[in-house]
Write a structure and sequence with these properties.
The complex is a heterodimer of chains A (415) and B (482). Helices cover 31% and strands 12% of the residues of chain A. With 415 residues, chain A is an alpha/beta fold. The chains are: A alpha/beta (415), B mainly alpha (482).
Chain lengths: 415, 482
C-alpha cells in the first residue's frame, strides 16, 4: 500500500484530502467557509448519533481490498475482493451494505477514515467513556452532547412543560448514555413510546391522581423539591404530549423489523413531530466479535445499512432529509490480525459514517496503513474523533466547539 | 490547599437557612420522635417498617445510634459467597454478584454497615464492566469488613485489592513501563481531590506502586523485580518510597481530612455542606485518628443531622429508593427484574459509570429515572402472587412479593374509613410528610370522587384501592427525598 500524506489545515473547515480521490469527491471535499456561528446554520438541524457498541471492526466495514496485507492478516474472515462493493480502486463497503451504498452513490454519505485518538484505550468501558465524554485525559461526568445541552437548552425560554425543553435531546433505549449526561438538562430515555408513561396498570384513576400529586404545595424546604416537581410533571405529562404529537406523523416506508431500524423509525417520528429535538441518540450492538466475526458483524452492518436507507427515504418523503445529520461511532476498531477463533480482538482506529441530505458525500482521510502499526499491532489513527465532534458542533449545530471540547481540533469538510 | 468542588454537581443544592456552627456537631438532646427515628433509619440504613421505626424510637437517640454503629448480636445468616458456578459463567456472573449484594442490603439487621459498604463502593468506584464478578464480590467484602474501620488501613487494603489492581491497571505498573492510572486516582478521587498534587507527584507515586500486581490466582503479590526502588520526591518529601509510604504520606495531608469529611456530610446530612461544617468535622476526624465509626457517630448524633435543614434534604439514590421500597412493603427477597429497574434509574450496583462513581444529587433525577422509580413502585406494590393452583411459567417465589397487604393496612387503620386508611398509610410510609392538598387528592382517589361514578371505599374495591394509594404515597416527592 502506498503511503500518502494527510493534510489537515489548522484553519477550520479545510478538507482532509488524499492524492487519488476521484474528482467528484475532491470537489465535495473542499472546504466551505465556516458558517458564522449561530447564523447560517438552520436552528432546526438535528443530530442523530448512532453508537455501534462493542467495537466495530473497521477493516471489514470499509474493506482495503487491494492491500495484500489485509488478505494476509485475515485468511479466514477477510472480505474477498470479488464481493466488495467498490468505492474506488482500493477500498469498498462490506457486501451487506447495499442500502448505504445507494445513499453513498446519491452523495449523502461521508466516510471518515482512521478516526481515533492518542494513547488509545482498549477497554470497552473506558474507551466508551472516552468517546462519550470527549475527555480522554481526565475523567469527567458530563458527556460532550450534555455540555452542548447545558450551554444551549438551559438558556432557552419556555415553561417546564414546554415539549421543546423536555425533548430537546432524547436517548432511544432504557438508559441515558454518558454522551448526553448534562448538569442542567433532563434528557429522557425512551425505550418505546408506549412505555414512556406512568404505568398504573388497570387503575386509570391512579394515573390521573398521580398527574396531580406533584402540583401541590411543597412538603418541606429541600432545594431539590423544585427539580423533583418539574421533572415529575415532565415525566407524567411529557409522554402523553409526545404521543399526541407523533400521532400526526406517518412513516412513508416500512422499516426493517430489527430493533435498530425500529428505533430509527421512532427517531424519524420524533424529529417529524417538531417538538424541538436537536439531538437523538440510538445504539446498535454488539460488535464485539472475538469469535465467528463474519456472521455477526455482517448481520449488524446489514441492519445499520438497511435501517439508514429506510430512515433517509422516510425523511426525504417528508421533506426532512436536509434537517437531519446522522453520525456513527464505536469505542474502538479491531486488531488487524484475525485471532484463533475467526474473530478479532480489541483495536484502535475505525471509520465513521456521516449521513444526511446536507452531507458532502465522499471519503475523508486516509485509510490507515496495515503495515505501519502501533506497538500492539493496531492501526494508527489519522483524524482525532474530536475533529468529527467539532465539525458537527460548529458546522451542523452552529455552536463554538471550544466551549465543549478541551483543546482545539480542526473540522472536517463533510458538512 | 483547598478542595476543588467545581465538578461536584451537588454544589448549589445546600438547604436554605443558616448553620449554627457552634452547636452543629454537638450531641442532639431534643425530643426523639418517630419522624426522627425514621430519618435516622433512612440515612444510616435503607429505611424501616413501622415496627422498626417504633423500636428505634423507643431506644432514644443515643441508644438508636449505638445500635446502628455497634449492632448487638450476629446479623441474619447470609451465604459467604454467591454460587461459584453462577459467578464464573459469563452469562450469569454479574447479575449473580449484584443480586447477592442487594439481597444483603434488603435483609441485613446491621444496616449502617451495609450503608457504609455502599458508600465505599461509590467512593472507590470499581465496575464489573472491566473487573471479573468474583473480584467485585471480594472487594465488597473488603468494604464491609472495614466499613466502619480506619481510613488509612482501608486505603492501603484497597491499594492491594485485586479488583482495584485490575480496574485501575496497577497490575501492569512496572519500573520499565510505569502506569499512572492508580497513582493519579488515589490522590484525585480517593483521598485528596483535584488541585492538591502535581503531575510530578503522580509520576513518583506511580513509581512507588510499581510491582504491586496480581498473580495467576488473582491474589495480590508484590514483585520486587518489577519495583522501582530508586529515590522519589512525593508531596514534598524524598525517599526510596514504596506504595505503603505513598499511602501514609497521602493521608497525612491535612486536605485529606476535609476531602473525606465533605463526602461523608454529603452522604449523611445534606448537599454542598458549608466549608466551616466540613472543617469542624475534619477536626473530629483527625482527633479520632481517622476512625470512621467515631466520625460517622459524631454525624448521626449531631444537632445538624436532626435539624429541619437536613430533614428530607437530599434525593434518595436509586438503591436507597429500591431497598427502602422493598423493606417497607415487607418483600423478603429482591425480585430479579430489579437490576433492570436500577439501570433505568441510573444506579446499577457494581457498575458505576466511571471511576468517579455516581455523582448523585440532581443527577439522580430526570424524566426517565423518575418514571422508572414510579413504575418500580407500581410494580412492587400492585403485583400479587398468582392464585394457588394457577399454572405459571416459573416456580412462584412468594418471598419476592410484598408481605404487607391491604388487609394489614385496614387492620392497622381499624376499618375502611378513608380518612383512617390514608392516615395509616401517610404515617407509616412517609411519616406524615404530606401536604393538605395531597391529602384531599388522595381521599378523592380512595372514594373515586373524580370517576364518572363515585364509589366509596368498600369491601369490593379496597384491595385495589389500598394498593393504589400505597403506590401513590410512595411516589410522592417527599418519598424521593431521604
Amino acid at each position: 500500500m502506498t503511503t500518502r500524506r494527510t493534510f489537515i489545515s489548522k484553519s477550520p473547515g479545510i478538507a482532509v484530502l488524499g492524492g487519488t480521490i476521484p474528482s467528484f469527491l475532491r470537489t465535495a471535499a473542499f472546504a466551505q467557509p465556516l458558517p458564522a456561528l449561530g447564523t447560517s446554520v438552520d436552528p432546526g438541524n438535528v443530530l442523530l448519533v448512532i453508537q455501534m457498541g462493542g467495537g466495530n471492526d473497521g477493516l471489514n466495514t470499509i474493506v482495503p481490498f487491494s492491500d495484500d496485507a489485509y488478505h494476509r492478516a485475515r485468511p479466514a474472515i477477510g472480505v474477498a475482493e470479488t464481493s466488495v462493493i467498490k468505492i474506488d480502486g482500493r477500498i469498498g463497503l462490506n457486501p451487506v451494505m447495499t442500502g448505504l451504498d445507494d445513499l453513498f452513490k446519491e452523495g449523502h454519505v461521508a466516510i471518515v477514515q482512521g478516526v481515533g485518538y492518542p494513547n488509545p484505550n482498549r477497554s470497552h468501558f473506558e474507551a466508551t467513556q472516552i468517546w462519550e465524554t470527549a475527555s480522554p485525559e481526565n475523567p469527567v461526568s458530563s458527556g460532550w452532547l450534555g455540555r452542548y445541552l447545558d450551554k444551549t437548552v438551559s438558556q432557552r425560554g419556555g415553561t417546564a412543560l414546554d415539549p421543546s425543553r423536555i425533548f430537546s435531546a432524547v436517548a432511544l433505549g432504557d438508559t441515558v448514555p454518558t454522551a448526553l449526561i448534562a448538569q442542567h438538562v433532563d434528557v429522557p430515555a425512551i425505550g418505546a413510546l408506549n412505555t414512556f408513561a406512568y404505568n398504573a396498570g388497570k387503575d386509570g384513576s391512579s394515573k390521573t391522581t398521580a398527574g396531580t400529586l406533584y402540583d401541590g404545595a411543597r412538603p418541606g424546604q429541600s432545594p431539590y423539591l423544585g427539580l423533583l416537581e418539574n421533572t415529575a410533571r415532565n415525566a407524567l405529562h411529557g409522554g402523553d404530549a409526545l404521543r399526541a404529537k407523533i400521532a400526526d406523523y406517518k412513516p412513508a416506508v416500512t422499516y426493517p423489523k430489527d430493533a435498530f431500524s425500529q428505533q430509527l423509525q421512532l427517531a424519524a417520528q420524533i424529529v417529524g413531530s417538531n417538538v424541538g429535538t436537536r439531538i437523538v441518540f440510538v445504539s446498535i450492538g454488539s460488535f464485539d466479535t472475538h469469535a465467528g466475526q463474519r456472521a455477526q458483524q455482517d448481520r449488524l452492518l446489514g441492519y445499520l445499512s438497511q435501517g439508514l436507507r429506510a430512515f433517509y427515504t422516510d425523511l426525504a418523503a417528508h421533506g426532512m432529509q436536509d434537517r437531519v445529520l446522522a453520525m456513527t461511532f464505536s469505542e474502538f476498531g479491531r486488531r488487524v490480525q484475525q485471532n484463533a477463533s475467526n474473530g478479532t480482538d480489541h483495536g484502535t482506529a475505525m471509520p465513521l459514517f456521516v449521513v444526511g441530505g446536507k452531507v458532502k458525500g465522499g471519503v475523508y482521510g486516509e485509510h490507515p496503513s496495515l503495515t505501519d502499526l502501533d506497538a500492539n499491532g493496531d492501526l494508527k489513527h489519522a483524524i482525532d474523533f474530536r475533529s468529527a465532534y467539532a465539525t458537527v458542533l460548529e458546522r451542523w449545530l452552529g455552536f463554538d466547539a471550544s466551549g465543549i471540547i478541551a483543546g482545539s481540533y480542526d473540522t472536517v469538510a463533510f458538512v | 490547599m483547598t478542595i476543588d468542588t467545581s465538578t461536584d454537581p451537588q454544589t448549589g443544592y445546600r438547604p436554605p437557612g443558616d448553620l449554627d456552627l457552634a452547636t452543629a456537631l454537638a450531641r442532639y438532646a431534643g425530643p426523639f420522635t418517630r419522624r426522627d427515628a425514621a430519618h435516622l433509619l433512612r440515612r444510616a440504613g435503607f429505611g424501616g417498617t413501622a415496627a422498626e421505626i417504633e423500636a428505634h424510637r423507643a431506644l432514644g437517640v443515643e441508644g438508636a445510634v449505638d445500635a446502628l454503629l455497634h449492632p448487638a448480636g450476629a446479623d441474619v445468616a447470609f451465604p459467604d459467597a454467591p454460587d461459584a458456578t453462577l459467578l464464573a459463567d459469563p452469562k450469569t456472573r454479574n447479575v449473580t454478584a449484584q443480586m447477592w449484594w442487594l439481597d444483603r442490603m434488603l435483609r441485613t439487621q446491621h444496616p449502617l454497615v451495609e450503608k457504609m459498604t455502599l458508600f465505599w463502593h461509590g467512593h472507590f468506584a470499581t465496575s464489573n464492566r472491566k473487573v471479573p464478578a468474583n473480584l467485585m464480590v471480594e472487594q465488597i467484602d473488603l468494604f464491609r469488613s472495614q466499613a466502619l474501620g480506619h481510613f488509612g488501613q482501608l486505603l492501603l487494603a484497597v491499594s492491594k485489592d485485586p479488583a482495584m489492581l485490575v480496574w485501575l491497571d496497577n497490575r501492569y505498573n512496572n519500573k520499565l513501563h510505569p502506569n499512572e492510572n492508580y497513582a493519579r486516582e488515589v490522590m484525585e478521587l480517593f483521598a485528596l481531590g483535584l488541585g492538591n498534587y502535581g503531575e510530578d507527584d503522580v509520576k513518583n507515586a506511580a513509581r512507588a506502586f510499581t510491582g504491586w500486581t496480581i498473580d495467576k490466582n488473582q491474589n495480590f503479590v508484590f514483585r520486587p523485580a518489577l519495583h522501582d526502588d530508586g529515590p522519589k520526591t512525593f508531596l514534598g518529601r524524598t525517599g526510596n518510597f514504596g506504595g505503603e509510604d505513598v499511602i501514609a504520606i497521602v493521608v497525612s495531608q491535612p486536605v485529606h481530612q476535609r476531602f473525606i469529611c465533605r463526602k461523608l456530610l454529603e452522604y449523611f446530612v445534606y448537599s454542598d455542606p458549608e466549608p466551616a461544617l466540613v472543617d469542624a468535622l475534619a477536626s473530629t476526624y483527625a482527633l479520632s485518628g481517622y476512625d470512621i465509626a467515631k466520625t460517622v457517630g459524631t454525624i448521626l448524633r449531631s444537632n445538624v443531622f436532626f435539624s429541619t435543614r437536613a430533614y428530607r434534604a437530599i434525593p434518595k439514590s436509586p438503591i436507597e429508593f429500591v431497598i427502602g421500597t422493598l423493606r417497607f412493603m415487607e418483600v423478603r427477597k429482591v425480585p430479579k427484574d430489579t437490576i433492570a429497574w436500577l439501570q433505568r434509574m441510573g444506579q446499577e450496583p457494581l457498575a458505576p459509570p466511571s471511576v468517579k462513581g455516581w455523582d448523585g444529587g440532581p443527577t439522580w433525577i430526570n424524566t426517565g429515572t423518575l418514571l422508572a422509580r414510579f413504575n418500580y413502585v407500581n410494580r412492587v406494590v400492585k403485583t400479587s402472587p398468582p392464585a394457588s393452583g394457577a399454572t405459571t411459567a416459573a416456580p412462584v417465589d412468594l418471598a419476592t412479593y410484598a408481605a404487607l397487604t391491604p388487609d394489614d393496612v385496614v387492620s392497622e387503620a381499624g376499618g375502611l374509613d378513608p380518612q383512617r386508611v390514608l392516615a395509616t398509610i401517610a404515617r407509616d410510609a412517609v411519616q406524615d410528610d404530606v401536604t393538605s392538598d395531597v391529602r384531599e387528592t388522595m381521599l378523592d382517589y380512595l372514594d373515586s370522587k373524580n370517576a364518572p361514578l363515585p364509589v366509596p371505599l368498600g369491601a369490593e374495591n379496597y384491595q385495589d384501592k389500598i394498593r393504589g394509594a400505597l403506590a401513590l404515597v410512595l411516589n410522592l416527592p417527599s418519598n424521593q427525598l431521604n
